[in-house]
Amino acid sequence: MMEIFLGGLSPSVFAMAFGVTLMAGIVKGAIGFALPLIMIAVLPSFMPAQTALAALILPVVVANAHQSVRFGFHDAWVSAKAYWRIIALTLVGIAISAPFAVVLPQYIMFLLLGSAVMIFSVLQLTGWKPDIPEHRRNPIQYALGLIGGLYGGISGVWGPPVIVYLLATKTPKREMVCIMSVIFTVGGVMLLAMHLQTGLLNAQTLPLSLAMLVPSTLGLFLGYMVQDRLDAEKFRRYALIMLSISALNLLRRGFLG
């Protein structure tokens, strides 16, 4: 029975995936994001990139749905209405790019994943926040939503452009986490639907993604518990450094073919 949830992985590799997903859940609960970033940056180090993408889909949907509801349905709905442009174009982007996830060679997947994680980590570590004038915010929301969605369909990560935008517009932390949770939930549902069609989520990988709900949910609640007891900025910085190292490893594997 247990073999069903291994997704074709050996028990030792499954155990490593469990540990990585647990840590990703803790970071998600503590700072509000980075669950798919950590999973997609680390898991391909010891499993195929497509399997790693499949594994993170259900944890992303469930964790962000819970985080959205935690803020209350009213706040979630207000966020959805305020940022509908990003949400709509994210969905379009995911729908366009998701079919390519099952046909891209492994080395291209590694290069795409590594570059996305590295760019985001460096921007965050350097504190870069572009100045976005009020009159340009609507068209920029369309553009960032589409860019994030196009990347998200093949990598499972569409948050970096949104996070950079929210930081640039000086969005309050609580509102920012709520907005991100809504965008990630809706995008996750689209990603789930698309990869059920592409076959990336199948009889082998769907049980694996289901199994990863256990460590991701446990980690999420552990993250909630430590949220108010840790130096969030220092914790975020350590997480970004770890992501940068993982991204370098992905790039190395991509360049080596």
From TrEMBL:
InterPro entries per the UniProt record, alphabetical: TM_pro_TauE-like, TSUP
First-listed, main subcellular location of the protein, grouped into a coarse class: membrane
Q: Which GO terms describe its cellular component?
A: plasma membrane
Membrane disposition: Multi-pass membrane protein
Cell compartment(s), UniProt: Cell membrane
| Record-linked Pfam families | TauE
Tell me yes or no: is Membrane among this UniProt entry's keywords: yes
TM segment ranges:
12-31, 38-62, 82-103, 110-128, 140-168, 177-196, 208-226, 238-255
Q: Which UniProt keywords apply?
A: Cell membrane, Membrane, Transmembrane, Transmembrane helix, Transport
Return the similarity comment: Belongs to the 4-toluene sulfonate uptake permease (TSUP) (TC 2.A.102) family.
Which PANTHER family does the annotation name?
A: MEMBRANE TRANSPORTER PROTEIN (PTHR30269:SF37), TRANSMEMBRANE PROTEIN YFCA (PTHR30269)
What is this protein's record name? Probable membrane transporter protein
